[in-house]
Amino acid sequence: MSVDVQLDEKIKQEIKKPSQYKVVFLNDAATPMEWVVSLLISVFKHSQAVAEEITMTIHTEGSGVVGVYSYEIAEVKAAEATTLSRNQGFPLQIRVEENE
Question: Residue 33 sits in a domain of what CATH number?
């Protein structure tokens, strides 16, 4: 004996965009501005003009957002920039923060 079961449920599908994360550079007295500009161009793919503008924001305001990405990409870019800076002897501090 076979019984057909009918489900009349409506499942509400909620599609949530993945969270975005900001990569933030912090100003310090030891890391040269030219180095920050070069990181923004090589790692974060900014143009020379945009890289210089972001660097001035970091310098004058104490920190600046250099990019907004998915968590994985933000972490990789922050780690790459930190490693490159340490290899050059610079103490550049980089944070990854959730973008509200």
Answer: 3.30.1390.10
Q: pLDDT by residue (tens digit) across 61-76?
A: 999 999 999 999 999 9
Structurally, how many domains does the chain consist of? Answer: 1
DSSP secondary structure of 7-45: ----PPP---PPP-EEEEEE--SSS-HHHHHHHHHHTT-
**Is 21 a domain residue?**
no
Q: Which residue shows structure tokens 């030219």?
A: 34
Question: Which residue range(s) make up the domain with 55?
Answer: 29-98
The tokens for 32 are 């040269």
Tokens 């974060």 locate to: 44
* Cα–chain center distance at 93: 13
